[in-house]
Design brief:
By secondary structure, the protein is α+β, with helices and mostly antiparallel strands. It folds into 2 domains: 83 residues, OB fold (Dihydrolipoamide Acetyltransferase, E2P) (Beta Barrel), CATH 2.40.50; 233 residues, Multidrug efflux transporter AcrB transmembrane fold (Up-down Bundle), CATH 1.20.1640. The chain contains 9 helices and 5 strands; from the N terminus they run E-E-E-E-E-H-H-H-H-H-H-H-H-H. Helix 3 runs antiparallel to helix 9. The longest helix has 46 residues. It is elongated and about 85 Å long.
Length: 345
């Protein structure tokens, strides 16, 4: 009776000894069998040494463990009350912390106070996402509305902290909001037009089952496009506003048309590099998916019709359209405001 009440526990431990290691052939597949001795560092068995076998059951991507590896261990009991230990993953916290510290130190050294303010803005962005956007969507609220409200909090917080309260920042914020609105409308239109459901990934299907259909999966797809594009719009809009500001300082008599054309000269280079960046980022994220179709005998016209591929295409192209439009929108706003200042003086 006590065995049936035993709850599975997740332990942490460190591999202290390799007791056995050999290659095995099972069902025509070569497997690496290892017997490990692990000292438990966290959990109800902390301080104890246990033996774990890995590789006796075929698992996709089975890693090779070494002495010193820190691992997560699933601890449960079978129907006879015997202990069952299964290594579920490596513990990655330490290298992740070191990488984060390198990022923070470099941001503070190179970016100085602006780098520090950007980090604070990043903290606020994550706080909005994890404390507001995700919980509200999980409760079943409309993902699109939640993403827009969240963006309205993130934009002023990150822009003002990173660039200060000035005309350049306000123009960039306005350009970002307008471009983001266009991205939202285009996303909704083409998601409907291409009949995307948002169920292209296993995670979406699992979430639907876990929440019994209370979450709008299609809305999550749209919200993801909005939030993803927001992160890139910051760079392009603040750059265009800064270019106009510097041109105006260099020649206060420069007219609106000339300001716009000169800034767009730089903006066109920015557009080219940012589109390339966005496409490569999305392609890199979907690389395993792309590889599945590289040797596919089906024609290209059929492959791009698959929902999982079409979803990435819509995400990439809608985001790129938003970036392209953000450049002239921000440039027009900045040049008009700068030119009005000249006439008032």
């Amino acid at each position: 009776m006590e065995t049936s009440l035993f709850q599975e526990e997740l332990l942490e431990g460190k591999v202290i000894s390799l007791l056995d290691e050999k290659s095995m052939i099972r069902d025509g597949e070569k497997l690496l069998y290892q017997e490990l001795e692990v000292r438990i560092s966290k959990g109800s068995l902390a301080g104890e040494k246990i033996k774990i076998e890995v590789g006796d059951i075929p698992i996709v991507g089975q890693p090779k463990y070494q002495v010193g590896d820190e691992v997560m261990i699933s601890y449960s009991k079978d129907f006879e009350g015997k202990n069952i230990f299964i290594i579920t993953d490596f513990i990655r916290r330490k290298p992740l912390v070191w990488l984060f510290l390198i990022f923070v130190v470099l941001a503070l050294i190179v970016g100085q106070w602006r780098g520090g303010m950007s980090l604070l803005g990043l903290v606020i962005s994550f706080a909005v996402i994890f404390l507001f956007i995700l919980p509200q969507i999980y409760k079943g609220e409309d993902p699109i509305i939640i993403a827009i409200v969240g963006s309205l909090i993130i934009i002023p917080a990150t822009f003002l902290l990173s660039h200060g309260l000035n005309r350049k920042t306000l123009v960039a914020m306005a350009g970002t909001l307008i471009a983001l609105l266009i991205v939202g409308l285009l996303s909704k239109f083409f998601i409907e037009l291409t009949k995307l459901t948002g169920y292209a990934s296993e995670e979406a299907a699992f979430l639907h089952l876990a929440r019994r259909g209370q979450i709008n999966i299609k809305g999550i797809l749209l919200a993801g496009i909005i939030i993803g594009t927001l992160g890139i719009l910051d760079d392009i809009t603040i750059s265009q506003a800064a270019i106009i500001q510097q041109l105006k300082k260099a020649n206060p008599k420069m007219k609106t048309k000339e300001l716009f054309l000169r800034a767009m000269d730089v903006g066109q280079d920015h557009i080219a590099s940012m589109i390339n960046t966005l496409v490569l980022v999305y392609t890199g994220a979907a690389l395993p998916l792309m590889l599945l179709f590289i040797d596919n005998p089906r024609p290209f016209s059929e492959i791009i019709n698959y929902q999982m591929i079409a979803e990435e295409i819509v995400r990439t192209l809608v985001g790129s359209v938003g970036l392209i439009l953000a450049v002239p929108i921000t440039t027009i706003l900045a040049s008009k405001i700068a030119f009005r200042d000249r006439k008032q003086h």
